[in-house]
Description:
Layout: E1 2-6, H1 11-21, E2 28-33, E3 46-50, H2 58-63, E4 68-71, H3 77-82, H4 84-105, E5 110-116, H5 139-156, E6 161-167, E7 169-170, H6 183-193, E8 198-200, E9 207-211, H7 213-225, H8 228-231, E10 236-238, E11 242-245, H9 246-257, H10 259-262, E12 265-267, H11 271-278, H12 287-291, H13 300-315
Helix pairs in contact: 1-7, 4-5, 6-9, 9-13
Amino acid sequence: MNIAITGGGGFLGRRLARALLADRRVERLVLADVAAARPPEGDPRLEVLAADLSEPGAAEAVARGADAIFHLAAVLSAQAEADFDLGMGVNVDATRRLLEAARSGGRRPRFVFASSLAVFGPPLPPVVTDETALHPQSSYGAGKAVGELLVAEYGRRGFVDGRVLRLPTVCVRPGRPNAAASSFVSSIVREPIHGERAVCPAAPELELWVSSPRAAVLNLAHGAFLPAEALGSQRAVNLPGITVTVAEIIASLARVAGPEAAARIDFRDDPVARRIVSSWPARFDVGRALALGFTRDAGFEALIREFVAEEAAGKGPRSA
């Protein structure tokens, strides 16, 4: 199988690449990003491609010969809110260009679209299901919702074998804070563990729907290899996560890293981040996803312990 990943130089893209390279069914893997991605390991099946999907011919270069395409490239939530044109240009227009390239290639590739819980927003039911109506409350969520509809339509017409996987907030991410409104969910764990102070813009009682990087990568790969008949006509899947409050995150941090780590968190309101994140649902019925074989984390404390174990294994405090 020949596979391409957009956003291949990013945090999830690089981890997904490592997971896919462990599968001998993968004959060729292209990591595409705006700047050529640093290869995660020296594997002869791996290629890197500098590809700005807004440029002529870039989407065609990514899709050429691909049996499966993971579309991870995106402008994140806070940045998409701050720069409307950039967000729409990447999150909507580039998705359409990539789908068109897949269509023109004539191979009907599996097209795995990394969507988000941000496609949902109030008014919300008590528990969100795969059939809950999309009602985004941010430019990022709107772009992902448009992307979902595009994947569904290109799939309906038989141009691609579309799969929409709605990710929870992924944490604990290594590295530095990024442009996601939810970046603080990782920061309030990562920075205190490293002896640094962190800012939390949300109230302790805010509920979040989260997933570990490990589960997110396993679920993206699993979604690509699922037989089409298993998904049926409903191609959008809410990926498993866990519901946790900010207060519970801090309590878990104290149990794993000690009360002195939890004391390094400062609460400081950020109206934009708070508005975006508080519009997202935190309770999902993922029975369908679990029946399809997707992975769920054991609990938030386990997420922190996974992060600490990775750091201790030598990936470094600022690694991806």
